[in-house]
Amino acid sequence: MARQSRFHGVSGREKKSRGFTLVELLVALMVMALLAVLSWRGLDGMQRAQTRTQQRADEVLTLQAGLGQWSADLDALLQLPNTTTIDWNGRSLRLVRRSSEPNAAGPLVVAWSLRNVDGTDQWLRWQSPVVRNRAGLTQAWGNAALWAQNPGDEARRAEVALTPLIDWQVFYYRDGAWSNPQSSSATTATAPATGASSVASTDSAIPDGVRLVLTLPPGQALSGVLTRDWIRPTVGGGKS
Question: I need a labelling partner for 59 at 20 to 30 A (CA). Which of 1, 148, 222, 226 fits?
Fold first, then answer.
């Protein structure tokens, strides 16, 4: 009787230690596959959200850099005798400014414009090399106008795309009021470096303030109308 009891004990242990059935394995595999799919979707969603967040942050930083460069260009405006310092024609703005290089031997010409680039309207900035004489200034001023209208490959290499735009406008602050530089108050100015009188679209004197109005497209980190005012440092107590 003792021997039979021992045999029954061995049979019970063998029955308890048997493996999973095929159905149980399939169910377990299906559960693991479902968990893997759900995990992948969660990670993929997190990755997409992180990518969108980074893209929005890059858009904001790029716009901030562009606005910072805009203010720096205006802060460095250089009034030269018989020279148009700043000119807005409704589509592009040209200006003469001091170079930011400490050992530069002359000024340079900067232009801002809105142009379609690869199917998207972009706010663009162009900068000439440092000019050392009147002839060089005249040529750089003309090159800036050509770049804004119909740039060649060489001119495109000198431009920087800042942000997509729908439209942009510029206003001057003079005599205690903001006005359109293209209004009837525009005066006769002198073409840069030539000394020849010509009818300019803007007053050649540096205005007391410049108002920039950007219309940003939807779908960006920032959209709608953005207004930024610049006040000439000598007028605003050294602040802009």
Answer: 148
